[in-house]
Amino acid sequence: MINYGLDMTITHQPLGFSYGEDVTGPMPEIRTLDQIRPSLRNPDCEGPEQVYAIAMDVARLSDRQELEKRMLLFGVVTYAAGTLGDEPVRSQGHVHRISQHSGWSPPELYEIWQGKAIIYMQEYVDDDPGRCFAVLAGPGEKVLVPPGWGHATISASPSEPLTFGAWCDREYGFEYDAVRARKGLAWYPLVQGDHIVWQHNSHYRPGRLQMITPRSYPEFGITDAPVYQQFIDDPARFQFISRPDKTAELWVNFHP
Questions:
Q1: Which residues form the Glucose-6-phosphate isomerase prokaryote domain (predicted)?
Q2: What does the pLDDT look like over 191-238, one tens digit per residue?
Q3: Of 29, 86, 143, 243, which one has the greatest count of Cβ atoms within 10 A?
Q4: Cα–Cα distance for residue pair 41/129, rounded to 1 Å
Q5: CA-closest candidate to residue 165, choices 225, 220, 215, 97
Q6: Model pTM score
Q7: What is the distance between the alpha carbons of residues 44 and 66, in angstroms, rounded to a whole number?
Q8: Beta bridge partners of 59
C-alpha cells in the first residue's frame, strides 16, 4: 500500500483495515451481498458474501480537532474482487443527505488507491436523470462528485480488489430510497469479458452516458498530491466539501 498520508494497512481476507500508532479509525462496517441486493440489476445474483468494507472518520490523532472544527471526515473503502452476477462489485447508488450545518447535500472527493474505479454520477434521481457521467480512474487519480448528484463507485477491474479514500462532510448520510424506487441509477454497469458495458435503466427517460477520464480541479485548489497529505499541508483546502455553499458559483454547470 502506498502511503497516502495515513499509516494504515488494507486487508482482503477478511476485508478490513488496520491502523498505525498515530492513526485512529472505527472497526470497519461490512456490507454484505444480502444488504445491497435491492440496488442491483439482478437482486438474486451470486457474488462474494462480503462485498465491501467501509471505515468512516479515519484520521491521524493530531488532525482530529481540526477535522471536527472544519466538519470534515475522511473515509476509506475496500471492495472484494469478483462480480455480482453480471455486474461488477459496486456500492449502492445513493444521494448524500442534506447536512444541517450547511443546508446542502455535500459533495465528495475520491482518490483511488488500489485497482481501477468507475465513479458513476447523474444530476438527478428523477424521471429525467440529467447529465450522466462514468469517470474511469486509476491509482492516485481524483474524482469530485458535486452536491446533490446520485452516484455509485464501481470496480472497473473485477479480477482485483478496489480501494479508495474520500473526503466527506462530517454529517454524512446516505439516501437510498429514491434510487431503490427506480431499481437503481440510470445506467447499469455489466461485465462483458474484460470490459464494462452499460445498459440503460428503463425506469428513467432515455438519455446519454458520457464516458470520461479524471481531470484536475484547479478551481478548487486541488493538486496532484495525495488528498490526505493536502489536508495536512493546508487544512482549509477542503472546506468546500463541508461548506459547498461557500463555493456555490463553482457548482453551476459543474463538469466532472
A1: 51-204
A2: 998 899 999 999 999 999 999 999 999 999 999 999 999 999 999 999
A3: 143
A4: 17
A5: 225
A6: 0.95
A7: 45
A8: 24
